[in-house]
UniProtKB/TrEMBL annotation:
Major subcellular site: membrane
Record protein name field: Chloride channel protein
Localization (cell): Membrane
SMART domains noted in UniProt: CBS
Organism name: Araucaria cunninghamii (Hoop pine)
Alphabetized UniProt keyword annotations: CBS domain, Chloride, Chloride channel, Ion channel, Ion transport, Membrane, Repeat, Transmembrane, Transmembrane helix, Transport, Voltage-gated channel
Length: 795
């Protein structure tokens, strides 16, 4: 059942027969209410750091009389306006995402830079206790701010947001996931978390930020905050919002890495479930706008008007000046890096899953525990960043270099830290720094002896562990940068071990190490390859990056799935994969249909409609005509819950069971039934009906989708799943194979395809299922505690 829509099959209020007390034709109820098992899969999920009900999006076009009249009445000017608005919105998404990305980078660089400069000043004066107090105290204040706004104002803003965006584009909606409050908290929280030295990145949150901006623009603003634009009424549907949010996610990656082509490919490969050529053009245009905006703002900052915002602001690890020359014997260490990346990446995903499950138990106890967890990680991280350099030996500054040594500013390869003049602390150059500058130092290729083996190993272990334990606390933060840092570290170490025996320098080994760990953890190939090439500005590395990504992904796939896929399932989001499980070919659509099924007559009594809307949470109801309206029971179509609420609110009732003879377009417009922003519309509690109105009737024919997608009950479940996903459906009607039965058997929704439901109905398939899965059976169970059947929400 759809996480919000077991439309007519299992719902929160209709599990018990005694609830069905509304007077109704007994024969109709006996024929259409199936006494079969109900779908009790959880319709709650973790969104950000909060547990909330979920529902499905509906990308199907509702072809009722109003829709047909609306399209027939549109003029060429209106069609042209719609096309222009689509491209205008794509431009605005790119513009605003680029501006927000720049603001986040500007704030992080200045706050973190000022903190490090002040700390270094105390270090120069040998006031080490005060230096640690300033460093740790600043980090604690910044992280506490990020955790407070996230835990108390917008829990949906926690984490990177990429799993939520990926789930949304798969057809899953949840309260607050793309709201204006989530957008603001995501921006402020990511600034606090990243500048507070936590081992998180701002790149994942930028993807979520771009999606929020696209949603805000596409839904015409927010009525709740009195920000609405009526001229965007054309986009009040899930199909157009899906395309805009896809553009927003691509813009987020483009803003995070200054990688416009990589952003388009990321949206195509990782987050989007539906794609077409027209969408490719618009996402490319959006990403190009982001690139132009960032380039213009970067040029402005080079005049020195952006404070400490410098090279470290907009990520660009330029290695184009390095001459790349490699031979066949250089491929062996590259292959080894790929294998290491696959093994470490799969281990990272496995451990992260275990840690997140523990964190979920802590987070569900309330905001106070979220704050305690975030503050604890801040103190641990500050202690590691400040304490580890004391374990490293001071190294004499190399002679003949052009860089300043030792470096006392916030960046550079030669941090002085506690060392005397003429010496530097190589571990401080990595750990006592921003992640962007640490990556830049690892990618550097000037001096092969700048780092000691022991320092690199300590930094690798620290970043690997901190990356595991930091992600999952209640602050906005992504995994991209922590994974790049960790991968670049062991890549640099392999390069140090190879020494002069390889034609590749240590900086290039660091780049390949980052690629291998990204491929082993995230399991992306094409998009990561292009992102890394745009980051490093060196096209000559393309063959090596491709090779290491393919090897690392192949090795890691032998153990578990990608990190974002694991998080999606761990959060309890009913994500539909692009392929069907083999056991689904052994079942038919009729084998998983559950009940009871609630239907309406073509001309239905107001009291009956009100009763079922009140006692069920179904989102769609089959409409059936029976004699004397028709010669035999006929399925007219499907009417949506939101449309029924509009009809009851407007009180366009009939005194008797007769068809409405007028034109429905004179009473309603398509805008009246358009989906409101953030999925909020009329509530049944807002509708007041008198006893007289309850006895009146509503003609549902003009508002019924007369062409819902249907499948015969003998169709294989695998085939039905592919149809359901590729068409982006919310409801799939199952009709009988023989004509001597009721015209509809049931309705399939998203949750009917979930493994826990299918295998719960057919436990004999479990054994073969577990043998095929790489994960243990327990991995199918969400971290969210499964509610009982009376708790499930059919939204």
């Amino acid at each position: 059942m759809e996480g919000g829509e077991k439309e007519n099959e299992a719902s929160a209020g209709i599990h018990e027969p005694l609830l069905l007390k509304e007077p109704r034709k007994p024969s109709l109820q006996q024929r259409l209410s199936r006494s079969v098992s109900t779908n009790t899969t959880s319709q709650l999920a973790i969104v950000g750091s909060n547990v909330c009900p979920i529902e499905s999006l509906d990308y199907e076009i509702v072809e009722n009389d109003l829709f047909k009249h609306d399209w027939r009445s549109r003029t060429r000017i209106q069609i042209f306006q719609y096309i222009v608005l689509k491209w205008t919105l794509a431009f605005l998404i790119g513009l605003f995402t680029g501006l927000v990305g720049f603001i986040i980078n500007l704030a992080v660089e200045n706050i973190a830079g000022a903190k490090l400069v002040i700390t270094n000043n105390f270090m120069i004066e040998e006031r080490y206790a005060m230096a640690f107090a300033v460093f740790a105290g600043s980090n604690l204040v910044l992280v506490t701010f990020a955790a407070v706004v996230c835990a108390y104002i917008a829990p949906a803003a926690a984490g990177s947001g990429i799993p939520e965006v990926k789930a949304y584009l798969n057809g899953i909606d949840a309260p607050g996931i793309l709201s204006p409050v989530t957008l603001i908290v995501k921006i402020l929280g990511s600034i606090g978390a990243v500048s507070g030295s936590l081992d998180v990145g701002k790149e994942g949150p930028l993807v979520h930020t771009g999606a929020c901006i696209a949603s805000l623009l596409g839904q015409g603003g927010s009525k709740r905050y009195h920000l609405t634009w009526k001229w965007l009424r054309y986009f009040k549907n899930d199909r157009d919002r899906r395309d805009l949010i896809t553009c927003g996610s691509a813009a987020g990656v483009a803003a995070a890495f200054r990688a416009p082509v990589g952003g388009v490919l990321f949206a195509l490969e990782e987050v989007s479930s539906w794609w077409r050529s027209a969408l490719l053009w618009r996402t490319f245009f959006t990403a190009a706008v982001v690139a132009v905006v960032l380039r213009a703002l970067k040029d402005f900052c080079e005049t020195g008007k952006c404070g400490l915002f410098g090279k470290g602001g907009l990520i660009m690890f330029d290695v184009s000046s390095v001459k790349i020359s490699y031979h066949a014997d250089d491929l062996l260490p590259v292959v080894i890096l790929g294998v290491i990346g696959g093994l470490l990446g799969s281990l990272f995903n496995y451990l992260l899953d275990k840690i997140l499950r523990i964190y979920s138990l802590i987070n569900e106890r309330g905001p106070v525990f979220k704050l305690i967890l975030a503050c604890t990680m801040s103190i641990v991280t500050s202690s590691c960043c400040f304490g580890l350099p004391w374990l490293a030996q001071c190294t004499p500054c190399p002679k003949g270099i052009t860089e300043e040594c030792p470096t006392v500013a916030r960046s550079g390869n030669y941090k002085q830290f506690q060392c005397p003049d003429g010496y530097y602390n190589d571990l401080a150059s990595l750990v006592f720094n921003t992640n962007d500058d640490a990556i830049r130092n690892l990618f550097s290729s000037g001096n092969p002896n700048v780092f000691r083996h022991s320092s690199v190993l300590m930094f690798f272990g620290t970043m690997y562990i901190l990356g595991l334990f930091t992600y999952g606390i209640s602050v906005p933060g992504g995994l991209f940068i922590p994974i790049i840092v960790t991968g670049a570290t062991y890549g640099r170490f392999v390069g140090m071990l190879m020494g002069l025996s390889s034609n590749l320098n240590q900086g290039l080994f660091a780049v390949l190490g980052a690629a291998s760990f990204l491929g082993g953890s995230m399991r992306m190939t094409v998009s990561l390859c292009i992102i890394l090439l745009e980051l490093t500005n060196n096209l000559l590395m393309l063959p090596l990056v491709m090779l290491v990504l393919l090897i690392s992904k192949t090795v890691a796939d032998a153990f578990n799935s990608g990190v974002y896929d694991q998080i999606v399932h761990m959060k309890g989001l009913p994500y539909l994969e692009a392929h069907a499980e083999p056991y689904m070919r052994q079942l038919t659509a009729g084998d998983v249909v559950t009940g009871p099924l609630v239907t309406f007559s073509g001309i239905e009594k107001v009291g009956t409609i009100f009763f079922y809307l009140k006692n069920t949470n179904h989102n769609g109801f089959p409409v059936i005509d029976e004699p004397p309206i028709s010669e035999a029971p006929v399925l007219c179509g499907l009417v949506l819950r939101s449309h029924l609420l509009v009809l009851l609110k407007r009180k366009e009732f009939l005194p008797s069971r007769t068809s409405y003879s007028g034109d429905p377009s004179q009473r309603f417009t398509s805008v009246d039934f358009a989906k409101p922003g953030s999925g909020k519309g009329f509530k049944l509690e807002q509708i007041e009906l008198s006893a007289e109105e309850m006895e009146m009737y509503v003609d549902l024919h003009p508002f019924t989708n007369t062409s819902p997608y249907t499948v015969v009950e003998t169709m294989s479940l695998a085939k039905a799943l592919l149809l359901f996903r590729q068409l982006g459906l919310r409801h799939l009607c199952v009709v009988p194979k023989s004509c001597d039965r009721s015209p509809i058997v049931g309705i399939l929704t998203r949750h009917d395809f979930m493994p826990e439901h299918v295998l719960g109905l057919h436990p004999d398939l479990k054994e073969s299922k577990w043998k095929r899965l790489r994960l243990r059976p327990s991995m199918l169970n969400s971290v969210v505690r499964r509610p009982s059947s009376t708790q499930c929400l059919d939204l």
